[in-house]
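Sat 14:20. Reprocessing the chain from the morning session after the first attempt stalled halfway. Input below, unchanged.
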Amino acid sequence: MERRLRIRLIVSVFASLVVLLGLILVVSVETRRIQQEASADVYLNIILDNDGVFPKDASSSLEGEAEGILDARFFVVWLDPTGEMISSNLDQISTVSEDQAGSYAHLALVSGRDSGNLGNYRYLVREQPDGGRIMAFLDRSRQNDDTQLSVTNEALVMFGGVLAVTGILILLSKRIVAPLVKAQESQQQFVIDAGHDLRTPVSIISADADVLAMDIGEDNEWLHDIKHQVGVMSDLTESLIVLSRAASSDGRGGEVIDFSSVVAEAVSSFKSRSLLEGHGFRLDIEPEVFVRGNAQYLSRMVGALIDNAMKYSSSEGTIGISLSSRRRQAQLDVSNSVDGIDPAEVDRWFDRFYQSDRSRTHNKGGYGIGLSMVRAVVVSHGGKVKATAAPDGSSVTFSITIPTTKGDAT
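Finished this time. Tokens:
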């Protein structure tokens, strides 16, 4: 349990830092981009205002980052009303030919936008009084390279910070989760000790009831009720003990078990009850499905699922039980028809002591602990459990998956 808590803490903090710093980096990059484009537009507007040249006395009108692009390279293209290039000014750039300038102008014209970016060039378009256009293109390759280098350095610094914080957290995580682990272990030990202490009086009451039955007979109503409640208390006590032990153990290191036999034996133990209650079984159990774990816990887990299905199945409804092995996972499905449930409640059924209908649940002998025990056993064996209900609330299926293993059961 301590290991799981430490892993969850470390992963949560690591993910939070990555998301937070990632958002900061994205906002920083986007802000820098907007500022650089605004500065470039100031420069381009000056060029367009001065008929395609940048006047030497215009430096006083530039502020901030724009001052860093006074020596930037640019070119200007004039187009007639039909979009054909009339002339160009390539005096401030040597890497662009007249044909290339015309191609850039054509791409900018096709985009239909008055400003934008083409590769490393920022352009601005202005319509002339005669219907023609003048386009100014500013080479921003240096700014883009500087931005890319800056972003890379920032990302490396942030990543280094995340690794440093994660490393510190790994060193301190044991101390951080220690109080939680101690409290949880104390709670589980209390439940286990209380369960063991309850076994003695329950056994005595059961024995006294048997002796009393020898004197007054088995048909006494009050005696029958006492024996029934003793059975319920005994099952509840055992479920609480299994729940507490399974929650703090790792069943994956146990023995190799023939899970198919466990399921078949559990079904067999319910056959007499199914006849009395009018329920039938629809079985599809694949043979020789092996898992590693605790046979007692797995048997109790399967029994709890079947018991739950029989308690809440509609009158004379059929209980479906299937076990199969696929992709190194054993999958057990237990399904039953019901008289009507709320599909929105299924996610809460595995909460401890949760009951969707308390009066009905107690009448059926349920106390909201069986499915919690099921989940604890499944999780301790490295598996998953879920419940799904039909959209119309007419049936419910409990599905568990547990990793399979090879070899003969011991």
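The chain has a mean pLDDT of 82.
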